[in-house]
């Protein structure tokens, strides 16, 4: 006597489950072989490279700790910070340099340097609203700087963007 289960509900369920098990195993094994890459020419990838290439690990930690903190005029803590407050705290904590609290006064302490000669920790100054300095950032490397943006908070940005090149008025190191 032979037992055949070819047409029973048990056999159909077993074959269906076996099919799904093989399909899931195949799918999972194929996902493990895919390589996900980030286009290295994106702004985010370039900013990440600038951070990865920092010589000072304490600077790296400082920036990552503050990244995303919202902008607040006159602010000087994680509840909100402005550009000159961010530069003030960074220069003091990382380099032991005490800057004035206002970006215009900070610019007066800086010895001018061409952009091509900037080094990690140098300052970059902008004038968005006329002739006077009204914004400051800290140079990192490869054309990137960190600053407290009025719209995006503390962020690493590309100094080579035309929006910054048009309003860049001074750059250099603290005397």
TrEMBL record:
PROSITE patterns: NLPC_P60. Keywords: Hydrolase, Lipoprotein, Protease, Signal, Thiol protease. Pfam families: NLPC_P60. Residues 53-175 form the NlpC/P60 domain. GO terms for molecular function: cysteine-type peptidase activity. GO terms for biological process: proteolysis. Belongs to the peptidase C40 family. PANTHER family: ENDOPEPTIDASE NLPC-RELATED, MUREIN DD-ENDOPEPTIDASE MEPS/MUREIN LD-CARBOXYPEPTIDASE. This is Lipoprotein Spr/probable lipoprotein NlpC. It comes from Pedobacter terrae.
């Amino acid at each position: 006597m032979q037992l055949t289960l070819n047409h029973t509900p048990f056999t159909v369920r077993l074959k269906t489950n076996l099919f799904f098990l093989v399909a899931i195993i195949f799918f999972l094994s194929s996902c493990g072989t895919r390589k996900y890459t980030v286009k290295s020419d994106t702004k985010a990838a370039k900013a990440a490279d600038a951070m990865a290439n920092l010589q000072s690990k304490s600077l790296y930690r400082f920036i990552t700790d503050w990244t995303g903190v919202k902008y607040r005029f006159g602010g000087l803590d994680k509840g909100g910070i402005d550009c000159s407050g961010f530069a003030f705290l960074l220069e003091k904590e990382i380099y032991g340099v005490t800057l004035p609290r206002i970006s215009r006064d900070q610019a007066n302490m800086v010895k001018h340097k061409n952009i091509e000669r900037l080094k990690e920790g140098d300052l970059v100054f902008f004038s968005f609203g006329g002739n006077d300095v009204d914004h400051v950032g800290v140079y990192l490397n490869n054309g990137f700087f960190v600053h407290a943006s009025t719209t995006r908070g503390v962020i690493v940005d590309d100094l080579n963007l035309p929006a910054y090149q048009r309003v860049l008025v001074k750059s250099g190191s603290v005397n």
